[in-house]
Write a structure and sequence with these properties.
8-stranded mixed sheet, binds magnesium ion, VC0802-like, Carbamate kinase, binds adenosine-5'-diphosphate, alpha/beta, globular, binds aspartic acid, 6-stranded antiparallel sheet, single chain
């Protein structure tokens, strides 16, 4: 069997749903488990709805509810106008959503648990519609509520999945559905606690759901269908000439994703790596393109430098260490602050200064050491290559380019497959273009 995950753009409107349904129908003999995101833009609207309802902003929440309802009804009316069951299923879900929103307005609060409950409707609505479209097209298709098997902890908004339970429950409850059906449609992103409370796996979490389902069901392949033809040498929105990388190692994609390449959720990679299941990134709007095959091994014949990505949500905190102060004390204090303020550390160096790069958030207060520090916004640029650390010639070319942009630090050797530069946001786009020129000239 295969897992086919379709992102928000692939189910955004009626036309995208048509394209997606055709792709699924063409692969029906492979026993697909279809994992869907919410229609593009709907999760954002649902989260806004939850917040506005919690603030008792009745006008805003009513108009958001109407937009969400109209969006889904329009797709259903276009795709399956006379299907009473489809309209009934949709009405039940929309009525539930309205009740939840009203509940939040009455309580005047919006907790992480409520955010998850409301956000889950995006995936539940898109999968309900897709199941009916597939059936209307003559497929033996069924809907499956992912929450039945995707058991998580109660860390709402960013819940962790119990992979052992997922494997057992999927084999017991999901697999048997294939005796009467050719395709099962389920939700990405959502799960539930053992007590049945709805949770979500974090924004963009449908990729992770797909990988977890693939692992649980021993799928032969996990297909990530999106709006670009595979992983490219750079974000095509920034470098329109970026080219598709035919084969890549998991390690490279993980580095790129960690440093801003939105094409895959970074955690997607691990469950697939562990079971050696290939992940293929494909384009719903150009389905004949072979896309990118991502495997655990380094593919033969890969270019030395494969791709470049950048993230812009980081802050650098730099403490110059006075002669009478121990750098380790300062580092410990900074780390305590990261733990307390829940700030992910992206980079850390210790020497004459102690420097950490963290995801943006509140400033630290160094009560103990009282050393002076500076805080500044930075961008992180990641250059990936299958064997970059051990390829001195390519490293030299990459570094020669990066030093022109006066990086605050260059991290070489922390990963076998990447070089990371900490740069001023003012120069990062030029640096990205410079590195991409190197990729093009290989
Ligand atoms: P989906 O809704 O299908 O999950 P996403 O928007 O999460 O899609 O991811 C696809 C987007 O990722 C593309 O539209 C593209 O702009 C962006 N992207 C960023 N870096 C890359 C890259 N290196 N290769 C391909 N796409 C990239
Ligand atoms: N719908 C969710 C989001 O927008 C999950 C996903 O699309 O992967 O974050
Ligand atoms: Mg995505």
């Amino acid at each position: 069997m295969i897992v086919m995950k379709f992102g928000g753009t692939s189910v955004k409107e009626a036309a995208a749903m048509t394209a997606t349904a055709e792709i699924i129908s063409a692969r029906i003999h492979q026993q697909p488990l279809v994992v869907l995101s919410a229609c593009g833009g709907i999760t954002d609207k649902l989260l806004r709805l939850a917040r506005e309802a919690g603030l008792r902003h009745i006008q805003e929440s009513t108009s958001l509810l109407s937009e969400i309802e109209e969006h889904h009804k329009k797709i259903l009316t276009t795709k399956t106008p006379d299907n009473q069951q489809a309209h009934h299923d949709m009405d039940v879900l929309l009525a539930q959503l309205r009740e939840f929103a009203e509940g939040l307005s009455l309580l005047g609060e919006c907790t992480p648990r409520s955010l998850d409950a409301i956000a889950s409707f995006g995936e539940r609505l898109s999968t309900t519609i897709m199941t009916h479209i597939l059936k209307a097209n003559g497929n033996r298709a069924t809907f499956f509520d992912a929450r039945t098997v995707m058991r998580t902890d109660d860390n709402f908004v960013n819940a962790a999945v119990d992979r052992v339970q997922l494997r057992r429950l999927s084999k017991d409850l999901l697999l048997p559905l294939y005796s009467n059906n050719d395709v099962v449609v389920t939700q990405g992103f959502i799960g539930s606690t053992d007590a049945g409370i709805t949770t979500t796996l974090g924004r963009g979490g449908s990729d992770l759901s797909a990988a977890l389902f693939g692992e649980a069901l021993d799928a032969s392949e996990i297909q990530i269908w999106t709006d670009v033809s595979g992983v490219k040498s750079a974000d095509p929105r920034i470098i329109p000439t970026a080219r598709t990388i035919a084969r890549m190692s998991f390690a490279e994609v993980r580095e790129l994703a960690n440093y801003g390449a939105k094409v895959l959720h970074p955690d997607t990679i691990m469950p697939a790596v562990e079971r050696n299941i290939p992940v293929v990134v494909l384009n719903t709007f150009e389905p004949e393109h072979a896309g990118t095959v991502i495997t655990a091994d380094i593919p033969d014949g890969s270019a030395a430098v494969s791709a470049v990505s950048a993230r812009h949500d980081a802050t650098m905190i730099r403490c110059d260490i006075p002669p009478d102060t121990n750098a380790t004390t300062v580092l410990n204090e900074l780390m305590d602050y990261c733990v307390l303020a829940k700030r992910e550390v992206l980079h850390c160096t210790i020497g004459e200064s102690v420097c950490i790069v963290v995801i943006q958030g509140p400033e630290p207060v160094l009560y103990e050491s009282r050393v002076p520090y500076t805080v500044g916004q930075v961008s992180l640029l990641c250059v990936a290559g299958p064997n970059l650390r051990h390829d001195a010639v390519s490293l030299k070319t990459v570094c020669a380019e990066l030093v022109q942009y006066s990086p605050a630090a260059l991290a070489i050797g922390t990963s076998d497959v990447s070089v990371v530069a900490i740069l001023s946001p003012a120069v990062v786009q030029d640096a990205l273009k410079g590195i991409h020129n190197i990729i093009e000239q290989q």
